[in-house]
Design brief:
Distance between the termini of chain A: 47 Å
CATH topology of one domain in chain A: MetI-like fold
Strand content of chain B: 15-25%
Radius of gyration of chain B: 23 Å
Order of helices and strands of chain A: HHHHHHHHHHHHHHH
Largest sheet of chain B: 7 strands, mixed
Low-confidence stretches of chain B: 1-46
Number of strands of chain B: 23
Oligomer: heterodimer
Radius of gyration of chain A: 25 Å
CATH architecture of one domain in chain A: Orthogonal Bundle
Shape of chain B: globular
Helix content of chain B: 10-25%
CATH class of one domain in chain A: Mainly Alpha
Structural class of chain A: mainly alpha
Mean pLDDT of chain A: 81
Largest sheet of chain A: none
Structural class of chain B: alpha/beta
Helix content of chain A: over 70%
């Protein structure tokens, strides 16, 4: 005996895949003959803001990944203190001699005050490091949040209660304070007092702590959504037809949750860039000479009265990135969920 | 010459030569401020003299234009590490100590910084006899504690004896050593809590005199006794370790409220009689210290000068490098600054216990990037390169430059590498430490230091220590640091006050100031010999010679800079004066304008 459900769904899928290549120029109408994914892609492509944002975000990631290559072509690195080594770049107060933060043919974005490093490569590597940490953290946080939130919401009862209390504790926990107190202790246990703290350890611990304290809000949000969704008719229907919990979760619940997930994730990524910078400022995150985007902005805020250019580049790139990333998130959500069209 | 007390305030000093012409750039490039800065000509060393009994009579001369009342708000990055007089040695603690601690002698500071040693609790600066082995002081009348009880010679003696207790290791030890004749004075006398008094200190309650019978001659004991470590403590109200939390005042202000790391409120001590005090004025009704804002933050608040900050002063952290250009380039800001030269020396102590090879220590001296470090501090205006242990204002100091730091301030990494190779120590690991959180500048200098060390063939490891526990950690004898940021200013202007505490091997102990842990017989012997030379000129020459020998043969430290520091005060604060002793505001001379 065959269950009627699988055949019912697979049939249109096959049709959809066949239909698209044969009629590529036909404008999509109602999505009757296309897969949801393809439809979303088509909708996304028509959203100009989304596409532009996607390119901007892409550029940032490419710049981050390709930082060593770009720096090599450009001929500078973010560790050499050019201003200190070469006379005439920094004045007696440690600020760039040339106007606009020392911008020149050699130093496209100027020279860092005091240490005299090259701002362009510093920014590239800063973006690279910050994006790496923030992206990994966001992915982990989102994944954990989805898993915990769905589990709690779907199972309900005792599990929900337990998870709920854990989330309460985490939300109430002063994570930054905890990190500041815990960090030196952990480092002194893991690293011999005669060795430098390896950068990878800093990065890993940053990511783990931010993840450990970061998943709670997204999990709580999703739990609420799931609680509402699981009583809906289509979930009831699939239960009646004998669908497995996995199927219900992945095919019925999850597709309806992409909107909050995407919003949360797009908000989280820039937030983690700044969180990580704040931690660095408190002496527990990345520190010089490791370049960091957030640290650069903080440094810029300290010297802006004498050298506004140094604040401009990291600040501007950060603004552009955050805006582009949020717009991209919006567009993706719109594309996935046709009911929430903005137009 | 100036007399100052040891260890600098935890802060960067960033300074500029007075003759420098500054462009008032508000944005963009900093402009080429490379014009000649006559920093040597701006050095103002204050005159020091010993006052008479008349000078020791109160009240203190009025500050012109001063007005009583109001509140002054000093802002500092960290809370005071100690309030117990016997545990105070750092100058930043002494800044507040001035308000509630009184010693037998003290410095009367004239406008402009000239200092006169006068009797504070004592009627004069003491009577010396027996070639400096016996000293007698007589107490003034009308001295009272904050509860109204009389301050007696017993209280003065109690303050001295507390210096022997097991919990007062942070304080000065000159007097204790002189009284017992040994640096291991705690084994001779364990403090006043066993019920025993020190036989070498004799008090006469009826005559109000206190007499010190020293084992070793100290012709300069009256200077020593001006240190807050020898401040009086009431026998009746001594709470031992807890006294650090709530000391009893005999000065113009008493501690009303102290939230650790947040704030400290001092209010008027009504039992203080200005007629007994030749040193202190007391114009504001209270002082409310705020702890937390770093130098930069405090500077920005004082530049903005609003929301109560009109009454604020920078307690002990100077204007940082990021703002010095702005502050000195804006006329009305510059008018709200006080500045002065620090008397001592900033240096990097090399742990001689771990780095035993002199060649490696010399290589470190050659490699150290002084120019880069000073540029981060603010350039030539921030101070001058140091090459000697004795600072320029020490009597008899002879300038020398063994490691070529004046000709090659950026560091001679090639020479350092050659030396290292010769010693067979290429790739020698160097654990460098500095106080983190005290100033951004050290987070920057570590980068150039590590770069220079790497270039010279070392394997640099940077291990910052949180600033409030920094000194406690590096002053442990079994610490695991090789090179430690440190600073020292002399307790009075003779070579003894620098070379003895820093390089006498017999003083090595937890919490002691021989951070280099140099323990070489010939140095120890020379210090012992030079300390008792009666003729000042001969003594000075001997110290200068020892200075050179130590740097040449042992290289236990890397001298960095003699620095200048600027402080800002709010628009409604009057009487701003630079304290040549403690390198900060003279708090008791400040007043709040109406």
């Amino acid at each position: 005996m065959t269950s009627p459900t699988p055949s019912a769904t697979t049939a249109p899928m096959v049709v959809a895949e066949d239909a698209v290549p044969t009629a590529p120029k036909t404008p999509p109408r109602g999505g009757d003959s296309r897969s949801p994914g393809r439809l979303a892609w088509l909708r996304f492509k028509r959203d100009r803001t989304g596409v532009v944002s996607a390119y901007v975000v892409l550029v940032f990631f490419v710049a981050g990944v390709g930082a060593p290559l770009i720096a090599r072509l450009y001929g500078k690195d973010p560790y050499t203190t050019y201003g200190q080594n070469t006379a005439g770049l920094l004045n007696d107060f440690g600020f760039p001699v040339r106007p606009n933060g020392g911008i020149s043919g050699d130093f496209w974005f100027g020279v860092e005050p005091q240490l005299g490093r090259d701002v362009f490569t510093l920014l590239l590597y800063g973006i690279r490091n910050s994006l790496l940490i923030a992206t990994v953290t966001t992915l982990l946080v989102t994944f954990l949040g989805i898993v915990v939130g769905l589990t709690a919401g779907y199972l309900g009862g005792r599990t929900d209660y337990l998870v709920g209390r854990v989330i309460d504790i985490l939300l109430a926990f002063p994570s930054t304070l905890f990190f500041i107190a815990f960090w030196p202790v952990m480092i002194s246990i893991l690293v011999s007092p005669e060795d430098a703290t390896p950068t990878w350890l800093t990065v890993v611990s940053l990511i783990s702590v931010m993840t450990a304290f970061g998943w709670a809000p997204i999990a709580r949000l999703l739990r609420g959504e799931v609680l509402a969704l699981r009583e809906r008719e289509f979930v009831e229907a699939s239960k009646v037809t004998g669908a497995s919990p996995a199927r219900i979760i992945f095919k019925e619940l999850l597709p309806n949750l992409w909107t909050p997930i995407l919003i949360q994730a797009t908000l989280a990524l820039p937030m983690y860039v700044t969180t990580e910078a704040a931690l660095a400022f408190l002496g527990v995150g990345l520190s010089d000479p490791t370049p960091d985007w957030g640290v650069m902005i903080q440094r810029g805020a300290q010297v802006y009265q004498n050298d506004i250019t140094y604040m401009l580049f990291p600040g501007l790139t950060m603004v552009i990135f955050v805006i582009a990333f949020n717009l991209l998130g919006d567009s993706v959500r719109d594309a996935l969920d046709p009911k929430t069209r903005r137009r | 010459m100036s007399i100052s007390r040891r260890n600098f305030v935890i802060a960067t000093s960033v300074a500029a030569g007075g003759s420098m012409v500054l462009s008032a750039c508000s944005s963009g490039g900093g402009g080429g401020g490379t014009g000649g800065s006559g920093s040597t000509s701006t050095a103002k060393y204050s005159a020091v003299s010993i006052g008479t009994a008349d000078d020791s009579k109160g009240p203190a001369p009025e500050v012109t234009g001063a007005r009583k009342g109001g509140t002054i708000h000093p802002i500092g990055p960290d809370d005071f590490s100690h309030l117990d007089p016997q545990r105070i040695y750092y100058s930043w603690n002494s800044t507040v100590g001035n308000l509630y601690i009184r010693c037998l002698t003290g410095y009367k500071i004239a406008s402009g910084g000239a200092m006169k040693l006068v009797g504070d609790l004592a009627t004069d600066t003491g009577t010396m006899s027996d070639d400096g082995k016996t000293w007698t002081f007589t107490l003034k009348d009308g001295l009272k504690w904050e509860d109204g009880s009389e301050l007696t010679v017993e209280d003065v003696r109690h303050g001295i004896e507390r210096g022997f207790a097991s919990f007062t290791t942070e304080g000065a030890t000159y007097l204790q050593s002189a009284l017992t004749g040994t640096n291991d004075f705690r084994s001779v006398y364990k403090g006043p809590y066993g019920g025993k008094h020190l036989s070498s200190v004799v008090t006469d309650t009826a005559k109000k005199t206190i007499t010190f019978h020293l084992r070793t001659a100290r012709p300069d004991l009256n200077w020593t006794l001006a240190m807050h470590s020898y401040g009086a403590v009431p026998v009746k109200h001594d709470t031992k370790e807890k006294y650090d939390k709530d000391p009893v005042s005999c000065g113009p202000y008493r501690i009303k409220q102290h939230s650790v790391d947040k704030s400290l409120t001092l209010v008027r001590n009504t039992h203080w009689d200005p007629a007994t005090d030749p040193i202190r004025n007391a114009y504001p009704d209270s002082f409310v210290f705020e702890f937390g804002p770093e130098g930069l933050q405090a500077t920005d608040r004082l530049i903005a000068d609003s929301g109560g900050d009109e009454f604020a002063v920078m307690a002990y952290s100077g204007v940082p490098a990021e703002r010095i250009q702005k502050v000195l380039g804006t006329a009305d800001l510059k008018a709200r600054t006080v500045d002065g030269l620090l008397t001592g020396l900033y240096y990097y102590a090399i742990n001689c216990k771990r780095i035993t090879d002199v060649k490696v220590r010399q290589a470190l001296n050659y490699a150290w990037p002084l120019e880069q470090i000073r540029r981060i501090y603010g350039g030539p205006s921030a101070g001058e390169y140091a090459t000697t242990v004795l600072s320029p204002d020490i009597a008899g100091r002879v300038k020398f430059d063994i490691y070529g730091k004046l000709t090659k301030p950026q560091g001679d990494t090639a020479k350092a590498k050659a030396l290292l190779k010769e010693a067979g120590k290429l790739g020698q690991k160097i654990v460098y430490t500095y106080p983190q959180g005290a100033s951004d500048a050290y987070d920057k200098t570590k980068v150039v230091i590590a770069a220079a060390l790497k270039e010279a063939g070392f394997d640099p490891v940077v291990k910052p220590v949180e600033s409030t526990s920094y000194y406690d950690q590096i002053q442990q004898i079994d610490n695991q640091f090789d090179v430690m940021w440190f600073g020292w200013s002399p307790d009075w202007p003779t070579g003894y006050t620098l070379l003895q505490p820093l390089f006498d091997g017999t003083t090595i102990a937890n919490g002691a100031n021989n951070v280099s842990q140099l323990n070489v017989p010939w140095v120890n012997a020379a210090i012992k010999k030079d300390a008792v030379i009666a003729d000042p000129a001969k003594a000075n020459a001997a110290w200068a010679a020892l200075d050179r020998q130590i740097m040449e043969k042992e290289a236990p430290i890397i001298p960095e800079t003699y620095q200048r520091r600027y402080y800002l005060y709010g628009d409604k604060v009057g009487g701003g004066e630079f304290d040549p002793l403690f390198s900060a505001f003279i708090l008791y001379k400040l007043y709040a304008k109406a």
